[in-house]
Design goal:
Blueprint (H helix, E strand, L loop, with lengths): L2 H5 L9 E2 L2 E2 L1 E2 L10 H13 L10 H20 L8 E4 L2 H16 L5 E5 L8 H10 L2 E5 L9 H5 L6 E7 L11 H10 L3 E5 L3 H4 L4 H4 L3 E5 L10 E5 L1 H6 L10 E4 L4 E3 L13 H17 L1 H20 L4 E3 L9 E6 L4 H10 L2 E2 L1 E3 L4 H7 L4 E5 L6 H21 L1
Parallel strand pairs: 3-15, 5-6, 5-7, 7-8, 8-9
Antiparallel strand pairs: 1-2, 4-10, 9-10, 11-12, 13-14, 14-17, 16-17
Bound molecules: pyridoxal-5'-phosphate.
Length: about 400
């Protein structure tokens, strides 16, 4: 048994059945399965030192604080950030990007300014900028997409100007798996004096990230896409930018002095972490990073990419299939349709075979408009998938195709 087959035992959900069939999980771009190690780290917090953090003087609370803050240092090292105080814990990518738009964006955007995004952004990296532009009388500018659904340096350059203030782009798209050269795009953005925000929700999963080398201004991601718990993620921001940004939420433990008519706030990152935080989830995210690092991001990437190549070749043998991202190898995502059959109907056939997959618009409606499709199927592979999963998926794909024959 290979190394990756061996890892399957860490994921208890793979032992269950769905519709009386062995469960096959092909929806990791939505959220990944969680290994025992992550759940156990959270259990240990709740069972042995489950106090609150950064408050009071009790020993249990102190232990919890140390564990929570140790994850901040671990995340900083994981993404190549020099200073742990540039790591803000949030509820996930969506919250991180909204925080940038409503704090930093509110601060710097004025009427007539331009904010650049592209059509293949997830709604989480589209709507916050669209709404900020509306509020401020700024313009939302679309960087042109290349054939793969990504943005090339030349494409970005064609829309940059002295009016550009913020560029917000994906590292890897959640629908087409397009990969942007974010380092080069950040460089071009800085040449016109603008700030570069990376939606790293999928990028962090499939390659080693070094925010210092990339020189992005902000990088956002979620733990649940990388074997961590839901409800927790990260906003990385350059120290000098976080220092300028006002908090967007107010409450306990983010202040120095609360006077009757005014309040002074702590420094970043604590001024952004109001109220009782998701302590167990932060600790679970630390365990997830340790789990991934023990395997190695490059090894995971190679495993997923070889499996994806195999899956694409198999899918091409099935009749009446249209694949929208055949050549995008950076992630485990294959986005496709059975011609003439609605993806929700097809997904029902897959589900009957025990296969969990995504159908719909993938929270990327502008991109679906670009693809001229109301919806698609998306299968996505991760470290616990193997060839047997792909083979079973192909059996279901053939059934979905004959379901078509039966109907029409
Ligand atoms: C590229 C991308 N951006 C943003 C998000 C939003 O992440 P979350 O729902 O964890 O906030 C996702 C999740 O699907 C994503 O894939």
């Amino acid at each position: 048994m290979g190394k990756f087959d061996d890892l399957r035992k860490d994921f208890p959900m793979l032992e269950r059945q769905v519709n009386n069939k062995p469960f096959i999980y092909l929806n990791s771009a939505a959220t990944t399965l969680k290994p025992r190690q992550v759940v156990e780290a959270m259990d240990t917090y709740y069972y042995t030192y489950g106090g609150t953090i950064n408050r009071g003087v009790d020993s249990v609370g102190y232990e919890a604080t140390l564990a929570y803050e140790a994850v901040r240092t671990q995340v900083a090292e994981f993404i190549g950030a020099k200073d742990p105080n540039t790591i803000v814990f949030t509820r996930g990518t969506t919250t991180s990007i909204n925080m940038i738009a409503s704090s930093f964006g509110e601060l710097i955007i004025e009427a007539g300014d331009e904010i650049v995004v592209c059509l293949s952004e997830h709604h989480a990296n589209y709507i916050p900028w669209q709404q900020l532009a509306k509020r401020k009388g700024a313009k939302l500018i679309l960087a042109p997409l290349n054939d793969f659904g990504g943005v090339t340096p030349e494409g970005l350059q064609s829309v940059l100007s002295a009016k550009t203030k913020i560029v917000g782009l994906h590292h890897i798209s959640n629908v087409l798996g397009s990969h942007n050269d974010v380092k080069r795009l950040a460089e071009l953005t800085h040449e016109v004096g603008a700030y570069f925000v990376v939606d790293g929700a999928q990028g962090i999963v499939h390659e080693a990230v070094d925010v210092t080398d990339m020189d992005c201004d902000f990088y956002a991601f979620s733990a649940h896409k990388m074997v961590g718990p839901t409800g927790v993620g990260v906003l990385y921001g350059k120290a000098e930018l976080l220092a300028k940004m006002p908090p967007t939420e107010f409450g306990g433990e983010m202040n120095h002095i609360v006077d009757i008519y005014d309040t002074s706030f702590k420094d970043a990152p604590h001024k952004f972490e109001a109220g009782t935080m998701m302590i167990a989830e932060v600790i679970g995210m630390g365990a997830a990073i340790s789990y991934i690092e023990a395997i190695g991001i490059q090894a995971i990437h190679d495993h997923v990419s070889a499996l994806r190549e195999y899956a694409v070749e198999q899918l091409k043998q099935v009749a009446n299939i249209e694949i929208y991202n055949e050549h995008n190898h950076s992630s485990g995502i294959i986005t496709y349709n059975h011609i003439g059959i609605h993806p929700h109907d097809a997904a029902t056939v897959y589900d009957r075979e025990g296969i969990s997959m995504r159908s719909g618009h993938h929270c990327a409606q502008p991109l679906l408009t670009w693809l001229h499709q109301p919806a698609t199927l998306r299968m996505s592979l991760y470290l616990y998938n193997n060839k047997a999963d792909v083979d079973q998926w192909i059996v279901a794909a053939k059934q979905a195709d004959s379901f078509l024959d039966a109907l029409f």
